[in-house]
Amino acid sequence: MKAVQRYFKEVVDAFVTVLIGMYVTGREFVDHKNRVVTQEYPKEPSPLPPRFRGMLFNDVNKCIACFLCAKECPVDCIELTGVGKGKARRPDTFTIDFNKCMWCNLCVEVCPVESLYMTHEFEVIFRNRRDLFVDFMKYQQAPPRPIAEEIVPEKQWVGPQARVETPPPDSEEA
Ligand code: SF4
Ligand code: SF4
Questions:
Q1: In the beta sheet, which residues pair with residue 80?
Q2: Interval between CA 80 and ligand 2 midpoint (Å)
Q3: Where are the chain's structural domains?
Q4: Whose CA is nearest to atom 1 of ligand 1?
Q5: Cβ atoms within 10 Å, residue 134
């Protein structure tokens, strides 16, 4: 008799289990648009945190060749030369060896004119190690700075005298 009871209990349990599974499947089918199941990257990229460290960039138009970044870099991957004196001082050469860089941000923090900054660009490839030796004198157009007042609740410092800059409304996103 007990064997018959156990048989019918298992049948009922199996039926209830199937019902629960169908309920979960049906609920996900109806409500799936409100649930993130799979993020379709790169079509739908996630927003990056404002202080995300992407590619390091030096805007050589602002740089005054003070050497502070090169002195501060713990792995000596910044090399530069400068020309001129006082306010007219500018870099003559400025390279960063990204084979060595460890994205510690120290160079950004010491730069007195905010010419060095971390961009939000991270989808980059280099086909060989020589390409990781980047000459910034080639780039006269600086990419947009990611930190903007409207997306940073508190002022975040990217250098000793940093101001939070808001890009002009008509500036193009790179
Ligand atoms: S982020 Fe750090 S390791 Fe890279 S260049 Fe700057 S100081 Fe050097
Ligand atoms: S600290 Fe800034 S201004 Fe000075 S050399 Fe480096 S990038 Fe240029």
A1: 94
A2: 9
A3: 2-34, 56-151
A4: 103
A5: 18
Tracing tokens 């989808």 back to the chain, one arrives at 123
Nearest CA to ligand 2 atom 6: 69
Question: How many residues are there in the chain?
Answer: 174
Position with higher pLDDT, 152 vs 105? 105
User: Exposed, middle or buried, 70 (CB in 10 Å: 0-12/13-18/19+)?
Assistant: middle
Ligand 1 center to 99 CA (angstroms): 11
Tens digits of per-residue pLDDT, 18-33?
A: 999 999 999 888 877 7
Tell me the fold of 56-151.
Answer: Alpha-Beta Plaits (3.30.70)
> Which ligand ends up closest to the CA of 73?
1
**Centre of ligand 1 from the C-alpha of residue 63, in Å:** 16
Distance CA 26, CA 20 (A): 10
Q: How confident is the model at residue 155 (pLDDT cuts 50, 70, 90)?
A: very low
Q: Which residues line ligand 2 (CB under 6 A)?
A: 58, 63-69, 80, 110-111, 113, 115-116
CB neighbour list of residue 124: distance below 8 Å, 6 or more residues apart: 55
